[in-house]
Amino acid sequence: MDIQIDEVKSILKKYNQEHLLNHYDKLDDKKRTELLDQIRNIDFELVTELYNSTKQQKSNNRDEITPMNYLDKFKLNDQYKYYEAIGKKAIKEGKLAAVTMAGGQGTRLGHNGPKGTYDIGLDSHKSLFELLSDNLKEEGKKYGVVIPWFIMTSRENNKQTIDFFEKHKYFGYQKNKNIFFFEQGELPMMDTEGKILIGEDGLVKLAADGHGGIYESLVKTKMTNKMRELGVEWVFIGGVDNCLVKMVDPVLMGIAIDKKVTVACKSVVKANPHEKVGVFCRRNGRPNVIEYSEITDEMAEATDENGELLYGESHILCNLFSIDAIERMGAEPLPYHVAFKKAKYIDEDGKLVEPDSPNAYKFEAFLFDAFGEVDDMAVLRVKREEEFAPVKNADSAGVDCPKTARELYKKYYHLD
Description:
By secondary structure, the chain is α/β, with parallel strands linked by helices.
């Protein structure tokens, strides 16, 4: 242990982070080992670079933003059946897997536990996880296959998530045969002086690295290897909080295969020109998603000859990737975005500090930042009321909340 501490002290001194061992002596043996492991696993070069980026002024953005072409699922006419037949064949051959990003907690919903365990208030009292599994199993039956399900958890909720599935007998799936769990990556939170924070538990305060960490996590945890062993070639990636997500869509899959693209995404048309959503576009000629904060009023309101918004295709986190694309995107970390958050921490005197205002930097990668790695991709417009019912806010918000999701779900499945 002394050799390990000396090694860690040397690392910390080099990066001016010696304070991480300030309360080491007060920890029990288990936590001491955990803290040393945490420190050894931190990429200090990356963390230092990320902190330095918070001090740099953003240069004037000279990117050329242009509209992105899309297909409307319900205006494909004869092509609909053509794409559908291609997709159905691939699904029947077992070439599709589903990934659900479920690393978040239900804190904003007033729920104590992983968001996927949340009951949105249906008469059945089914959790989000069960609603998703019902859909996945039903689709699998249509094609005579079991569609492998990969669930990305976080360090914070991994045990609770697996315990929940165990309690519900994995909703008919078989652990490590056709349902798999893996954890997303994390990065330390830092204060405004560049010091890594110590959490209430005496360990390094870590935060999930955003949904853009999905590619790297799939590769590092060898889930892509597992997929290949199962004969999977295509992977649908979606969030746990959309109770109407359609993870199995032969039309989307058929379009990707036919057009020989490695990424195909779903969109819904913006509710209004100024809806606060990211929209598909081309950035310097390559596929991308532009945040609503980057769009000028003029761009937001621009229309084509048919009166359709030029920048009207919302990214709804419903994306299909080839395994090759995931492995390529997961080979290197994506660029990180900085968020300034409120974070509790232990100060140098060992006291818990609960700030009233933001005090810490959190670093996140966005899944769509990887789109620029491909030459082309397909975007398929679907109907909001059929495929997009997110549960993000408490009912008091009035939008994207349990009440709105429940209403959309009941209407779609004719439960009233």
